[in-house]
Amino acid sequence: MKKANIRKALAAGATLAIAAAALSACSSGGGSNGGSDDKTVTIYGTISDTEAELLEQSWADFEKESGITIKYEASKEFESQIGIRAQGGNPPDLAIFPQPGLLGDLAKRDYLVEAPEGVKSNVEKYWSKDWAAYGTVNDKLYGAPLLASVKGFVWYQPKKFAEWGVEVPKTWDELLALTKTIQEKTGTAPWCAGFGSGDASGWPGTDWIEDLVLRQSGPDTYDQWVTNDVKFTDPKIAAAFDSVGEILKNPKYVNAGFGDVASINSTQFDDPVPSIVDGTCALHHQASFYSGFLEDGGAKVAEDGDVWAFVLPGLTEGDHPVTGGGEIVGAFNSNPDTVAVQEYLSSAEWANSRVKLGGVISANNGLDPANASTAILSQAIEILQNPDTTFRFDASDLMPGSVGSGTFWKGMVNWVNGEDTQTVLTEIEAGWPSE
After folding, report:
1. Does 260 lie in the same domain as 354?
2. Which of 57, 65, 171, 411 is most deeply packed, by most CB within 10 A?
3. Cα–Cα distance, 356 to 369 (Å, whole number)
4. What pLDDT does residue 20 have?
5. Contacts of 353 (CB under 8 A, 6+ apart)
6. DSSP secondary structure of 139-172
């Protein structure tokens, strides 16, 4: 789930359009259990490696009780292949979508079936209206949320803060002052950053921008930005870029242990882990899922441990809305076994089963935070379950693929490479569909 939480759709809109033209003569629905054997339900997603093994463990008891075999297939090309498979008449029974916009694209093309009553009931009981909306297309629920991540954490070493005599900042200005202080005390860049992620390079930069748009301009502007009622060329969006640039484009502040500002693009998003663990990197901006990477790197993630984190502060003390991500499970058929598995995955029972295995969280309100494997993940669950939390889903995941996983990602890479903000914003906005 670690990498699955951060994978974004790879030009979903363009891929679907090309595939549609090439495969227009093909069947467009899920076959009988997607071509799988009787009592077997196939699931396709991005969750891979150790996290895929934990996913399979999480539903093992359900398989025994129901007699249904769940066959899971992971793919790094999920975002481009799911549309091709759907349009080619060879979809899985269920798909775990890391981007609501991609689920919406397929739902609008009638490849997905509406969620069954059991899923609707679970969503109404266990999920907030905001989370339910991410699986809703044209007022119809097509999928239930699965796992989640809280973004905007800043990872640091508590013992280093004590050594330097600094404290966790409570406002954005205090964060900038903290950065300056660490730089002066150490003589090195405090922040490390990595935008590299193969075809998805640039996505960590979009997380930075989303955090600043939400904090500086508020949730209403953020929502209007997602729908393009506020353009990328709007001064409010430019202000977010400029604020992020105070850190990421300052050669005194980045890129700890890796080089200059330009090295951000050549540094893979998970490369900073050893530098955070050994203290070379003092500050790193990344989501809750990063705790798993840090633990794998040998760190104890705890307030009194090797590494801990604070939520990126807002403009004023106590004002720190959060962004986050997650997956939505959608179905390509309404076969009884498919329905049974989809209902189970939308339940509190499954959420607790998976979270107990470690490394992940869910926004399911039936989840006990005590089941989380680390204190930071328990904190993230509490943030998600707190009715007073101002939460917004990752903007690039909600935007059309041509922008969110297209020009926005590319724009962040160009921006780090030295292209001026206004040029980058104009190029990103140009990716917005005309319809």
Report:
1. no
2. 411
3. 10
4. 36
5. 58, 59, 61
6. TEE-EEEEEEEE--EEEE-HHHHHHHT----SSH
Domain hosting 381: range is 12-150+324-389
Q: Which residues contact 69 (CB under 8 A, 6 or more apart)?
A: 37, 39, 40, 41, 63
Within 15-78, strands assigned E span 40-45, 69-74
Q: Please report whether residue 170 resides in a domain.
A: yes
Q: 91 and 177 share a domain?
A: no
Let me know whether 262 and 143 are in one domain. Answer: no
Task: Say what the alpha-carbon torsion angle 61, 135, 223, 195 is, to the nearest 10 degrees.
Answer: 50
SS3 131: helix
> Taking each helix axis from N to C terminus, what angle separates 78-87 and 12-22, rounded to the nearest 10 degrees?
30
Q: The pTM is what?
A: 0.83
Count structural domains, the chain: 2
Same domain, 158 and 294: yes
Residues 16 and 83 sit within 8 Å (Cβ to Cβ): yes
φ/ψ of residue 146, rounded to 5:
-115, -90
Are 207 and 330 found together in one domain? no
Task: Dump pLDDT digits (tens) for 167-185.
Answer: 999 999 999 999 999 999 9
pLDDT tens digits, one per residue of 56-86: 999 999 999 999 999 999 998 888 899 999 9
